[in-house]
Amino acid sequence: MQVEAAVLSAPNTPVTTETVTVDQPHAGEVLVRYLASGVCHSDLHVVDGDWARPMPVVLGHEGAGVVVAAGDGVTNVQAGDRVVLSWVYPCGECAVCLRGHNWLCEQTSAGRHVLADGTTRTRRSDGTSLYQYLAIGTMSEAAVVPAAACVPISSDVPPEVAALIGCAVATGIGAVVNTARVPAGVPVCVVGCGGVGLSAVMGAALAGAYPIVAVDTAEPALELARTAGATHPVPAKEDWDERVRRLTGGVEYGFDCIGSADVVAALGRTLAPGGAIVLVGMTAQGKTVPVDGYRFPDRGYRLLGSSYGSCVAAVDFPKIAQLYLAGKLPLDLLVTRRIELGDVNDALQAMRDRAGGRAVILL
Q: Which residue in 53, 57, 130, 217 has the most C-beta neighbors within 10 A?
């Protein structure tokens, strides 16, 4: 079948919308007709050359759609199922998966941006194979993906919200409730109020944290954070860390949802004794973050890395969807722009400009 897809051929070049061919699924694979795809900061890292990835690649890793066909041996989904895509599909067999840490699976081919056999089912009109970002390439009208990447979800969840559950929402909420396991009544600080940061604010509100401080450079982002549950929005002006310290008396958990060495250093100055910095956003490859080698052990500080919100997608995605449908998570506020596939470059620029919220491609 022929579909439209957003393709990146080289870093620091515009994303192009192309007609590509998608072949039928092999054993263990599923053909998904995408309904929505988020435009995530991780896509921007690839476009801007911060992260080295094989190319040409169909971008996107935050998607929701409908199963069209399933290959041999697929039992977890069937044609007609609404699904959210997980960009870390677990093998279920490695030592990490067997410990229940599916989000850290070491055998998945997702990091190579291909399916399990080392190829993809997507190609250009001249026959050139295209990589699929994290094996799912959601900025496309359709793709063949690993069956293990498909998580069934209620059709009552709008596609644009379902898509965000697959990355930003799971990453942000999971960082709070799974990685940090924030208890009720403790002060937290979330820096960076994009899709992931706003989701972390919602996770903190769900956990009963107080106060919930949200920090960002953009006033519209801070307004969204207030709606998401932040009790104290703080502009990221000079010495914002001192203000956070005064507001809270010391933060128990500080979440860097940007991926910034400066933010990590500032959060270190906000912590209460025994407090933790949670690294949620990721820096450019090869960058380091500053940790005070005297004060960290002296004050019992901790540094936690949070990948994909420590989520087991098959368990956590449906749970998040249920909380949304029950009115416990205001996920609709994350979707600030609904766009077409050809508007991807504009959406990426809006992220560079810190426009706030999340653009979602409706397919």
A: 130
